[in-house]
Design a protein that fits this description.
The chain is of the alpha+beta class. The chain is built from 5 helices and 6 strands.
Length: 158
């Protein structure tokens, strides 16, 4: 499996490490019109921050920290483009090494990393369970509106 989802190995299949709103299958389904194969994963050497005034998190490199998330496996180039558009311009897409939790395996994946490492709006630690309980329903509706706007302006979405 390491090569099947590794970045750039097959050229047509991509793997993305997600750690925020995309941990929710409902959000992924709205964006990609499917929920791809996933696997729980850890990104070592990073921290997941809350962002003042936003419901989604940011990650940045921080020594001796780790972010638990999952990888979306087998994404098409079009699906990767959709995620690129979905992620705020404040994020940089980087290739990172993630450790799979259900296999003792490390693979390369894309991750969206916050571009401003000194951003004063970053604080604490973002909590997915809290997001799920209090914000997910509204976030899914906002994502549906976002997808509709994209569909109105582009032919990229399925």
């Amino acid at each position: 499996m390491a090569n099947s989802g590794a970045v750039g190995v097959s050229g047509s299949s991509h793997t993305v490490f997600v750690y925020g709103s995309l941990l929710a299958d409902d959000v992924v389904q709205v964006l990609l019109n499917r929920v791809p194969q996933t696997s729980p994963a850890i990104l070592n050497g990073y921290h997941r921050f809350s962002i003042k005034g936003r419901t989604y998190p940011a990650i940045l490199p921080v020594e001796n920290k780790k972010v638990t998330g999952r990888v979306l496996i087998g994404l098409s180039a079009t699906e990767l483009d959709i995620l690129d558009m979905y992620e705020d311009e404040d994020y940089d897409k980087r290739v990172v090494d993630v450790s799979l939790l259900d296999a003792s395996e490390v693979l390369q994946a894309y991750a969206y990393v916050w571009g401003n490492s000194t951003d004063p709006d970053l604080y604490g630690e973002w909590d997915f369970e809290e997001f799920k309980e209090s914000k997910l329903k509204d976030y899914v509706e906002m994502t549906k509106s976002y997808v509709q706007e994209l569909q109105d302006t582009t032919t990229l979405l399925p």
